[in-house]
Amino acid sequence: MERLTERTVTLAGALEAELAEVRSAGYAVAVEEYETGLNAVAAPVRDRSGSVVAALSVSGPAYRFDEDRRADLTVPLLRGRARSRGGWAGTPPETPGTPIRPVSDPVPVARSSAVTGPGGVVTRPAVARRRRVGPVFVDDLGTGVAVPDAVGRVVSVVPSLTEAVAATAPGLLVGVTDWCTHPGDLDAARIGGTKNPDVDAIVALRPDLVVANQEENRAPDLDALRAAGVPVYVTDIRTLDDAFGSLARMLAACRLDRPAWLDEAEAAWVAVPVPSRRRRAVIPIWRRPWMAVGSDTFTGALLARLGVDNVLGDDPERYPRFDPATLPPHDLAVLPDEPYLFTADDGPEAFPGVPSALVSGRLLTWYGPSLTEAAHTLPQALTPPP
Fold it and tell me: What region holds the IclR-ED domain (predicted)?
């Protein structure tokens, strides 16, 4: 913990030094308003009226615990991301060092410990919202996430994680994606898709934590949330063992105890018998163009546990395009109902002479409470009738 604290202080110091340039250009910057954590360090910039016109931050891989990169903390601050109650405004300058919206006479905006800037004294506004930060949790990317002492509002941008949190603590979720379909009675604000979430809408929900996934979500969206002072916990799940460990850690970051459903899911997969024979399958996920599961995926690892080897498992792409006519030898086509809805009339005809297994995409690709059902259902579903 001493190392984490030391890094936090170092990071905050780096940001303060960079912001000296902004203050000298005529901005009012209150360093007491830093949202300080290992995901990001940010401070608001105010114009002469006291309005926040920018949120400047340092964020990125410099906080990885397995690297000592303090010398690299000269990362340019994110400029041009002016946040106000009306949403984003402003655009990044052409030159990294160019200030945005300079004002000639910054004025004090509140009372408290003072920080001197050109043209006046700026202090921390009394209305600033600050979280009481508790322990630092390390996510699956090795990034430390400073989580508030009390977590009462969570946004999930991954359907699997949504189901996991909802099954563990109903009512904790305040925001989910448009693709979050389970549980069926989910009552939370919809904040867009996994690849195009509405960052402003998420920030407006004032989450104590956002849970995300390295594959499902885009780094720029997660960086934008961090720059706005929102803690983001990222999972990275590529095997069944990854799933069990990652879900336990993610739920712990939500300040939740290990749920019974997670123990049941793990036990269900331990009980799955070792297959007596192995098959070789293609696992399409899309048509027009044809795309399939490739290398290093959770789906591929799950199928391997069930005795089904992916014929495209050595492809350098995780989800490569392919031509059904030029596939390596295979004796099975696994056709899920999502993201593309394969049916008995749409899919099997492309793989003549090979049996097709129509399966639930949720059971094949989701990690969470559905893992128990997957262990009980998929072995039989992957054995199509003769």
Answer: 1-91
